[in-house]
Amino acid sequence: MDHRGVLRSAAAIAIVLSQFATAAVASPRTEDAVGTVLNPDQINAAFDVDYLFGLTPITQTASITGNESVDERIRTVAEQRGYVKRPEAAGELVDVDGFRLQPNAAAAWSELKAAANAEGIELTLTSGFRTTATQASIFNRRLNGTSDTQLDTLLATTAPPGYSKHHTGFTIDLRSGPYALHAFAESTAYEWLSANNWANSKAHGWLPSYPDGVINVGPDPEPWEFVWVGTTNIICAAFTPSSAKPFCDDEHPANSALTWMQNHDQIFGCTAVRFCPQQPLSRGEAALMLWRLHGRQIPEINHPYRDVIAGTGVDLAVRWLYERTVLNGTSATTYHPDLNLSRGHFLVMLWRSAGRPVGTVPYPFNDPAQDRYVETAAAWAAELGLVDGVGYRNLAPRVAITRHDAALILYRYLMLIPTLS
Ligand SMILES: [Zn+2]
Q: Fewer Cβ in 10 A, N or C end of the chain?
């Protein structure tokens, strides 16, 4: 290496060290999120309530003015602008800086503020969670006329109750010193938040709520409003699956059991890019996984279940498992493929598909098994190291098994069979 080469290397090391100093706490997931470049439409789509937890399903329409025909008109004009109904926070919220937020959003807000402060940048929270009643009073205070034009003007800045992202507890409004509302876009805080495709925001799971460049999403662009979606949803918003990383929501993609299982045709995503590890496994999905575990064998007889659609993969799987007496219906003529499967019944199905082996150790969990089949299956699975307990060594046999836990149990089982691994 010549002299200039040495200098270049020294400079490169200095840059690496300085990056390391500022990014010392960044996890691989954080780096992936920061490195995920999103266009405005992808930013908008990343706030998908199907993949955020702690929300109530939208069941009723919030009252706005109390006059039902006026309310109906407001909703129509709002939905023409692209407003969509938003669910309300379901669980306990956390008090932070005078407002309430979802626990993970509150922690992420404190991190974001600390990171900004460390760079000498001031960020102040000006709004967090709002009930529909609070949003109704804001909306009605600003309502001064109910012609379509007057409504459209108000809706450019103010969501009607039931349509505000603030209901979710994942949404914040910000200011920095005197820079508030539209002026916030002129602040150094906004420059810091938005630089390099929102790198500093994404590092803590935040995205702009209504960024420039999206159309028909409700209000006009709002530089001051941000939503917490978490690093996983940022990564998932622009993700191309590969055999090295088939799922955007696998939080531990290195040496991942999920990756191995996907590449060996043992599991399947809930979408083209997600595995949905925390979602419950349905009875139909369980049948498909166990059928794949045994090599997708062609069944010879039919099953008696009216609610399994003939000719589908689930149908083949249920036929084969029925033939092998691995599964039980929910009645003589129903299987209910969409219902969740319990942890206990999943172990029973696996144990039966393995040929009902008899273990050598007693049932090791503290909580009682549901019945003697679950007891035998769980004892066998625990002896082989297939199943982790819940909490202090409980089986929790009646709790729905998650897609992650089911895949992990099947992975461990496969690893015990050398010819398949
Ligand atoms: Zn807001």
A: N
